Amino acid sequence: MDNKLIYLLPLAAAICLVYNASRYELPNVILKRALSFFVKTMIFMVGVFLILYVLSFGL
């Protein structure tokens, strides 16, 4: 596969997991917060992608 966006999901998941593991100690809290952070991160990145797509549509 030549699509580099395929690496976005595991990279974001790893970053969210490591970030929350450094802040909390209980595994269930880590997973719950990491999942929440992952969803928020994905929503933000999709929003930025859509804005850039709309702005570049006429170019």
Description:
The chain crosses the membrane at residues 6-22, 34-55. Keywords: Membrane, Transmembrane, Transmembrane helix. It is a single chain. With 59 residues, this protein is mainly alpha-helical. It is 73% helix and 0% strand. The chain has two helices and no strands. It is elongated and about 50 Å long.
Structural class: mainly alpha
State the domain count.
1
Order of helices and strands: HH
Shape descriptor reads: elongated
- Determine the N-to-C terminus distance: 27 Å
Could you give the topology of this structure?
Blueprint: H1 8-21, H2 27-55
Helix pairs in contact: 1-2
In brief:
The protein has 59 residues and is mainly alpha-helical.
Quick tags:
mainly alpha; 2 helices; elongated
